[in-house]
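I am writing to request your help with a piece of structural work I have in hand. A protein sequence and the structure tokens that stand for its backbone fold form the material at issue. Please examine both parts with care and let me know of anything in them that strikes you as inconsistent. The record follows directly beneath this note.
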Amino acid sequence: MLLRFLTAFALLSPLASPAELVIVASPRSGAIELSREQAEKLYLGRTTTLADGTPVKLVDLPSGATRDEFYLKLTNKNPSQILAYRSRLVFTGRAYPPLEAESVTEARQWLADTPNLIGYLERGDVTGNLRILLRLP
């Protein structure tokens, strides 16, 4: 009985629900417009520019649950599929993976300081020096 209660509590608890993920950039990047399709193309290495031709760079969070959830939500690919896909692109020289931050703090700092750098964070990690470009439900 106690086990059922604890399981039900864990499932209903806000901590059990996944955090909202957002794609962000520095306000110094200008008026970036980003659709979900464009974000997917960027993170899959199919393009390195926005629709208006502006070149952008990408930042990845360190390996872990947030990064895995981001790619699953954005591309519908699991971590091994992303690794295999990226390995093929890098091997053929068609694309390079995003810069990988060592922590959320480092990613947030890079994003705030670098125009035209795009990254993703949990909504709760976004600070006032970042602009949300896209929400991933």
In short: Residues 2-16 have pLDDT under 50 and may be disordered. Residues 59 and 96 are 12 Å apart (CA to CA). The domain at 2-136 is CATH 3.40.190.10 (D-Maltodextrin-Binding Protein; domain 2).
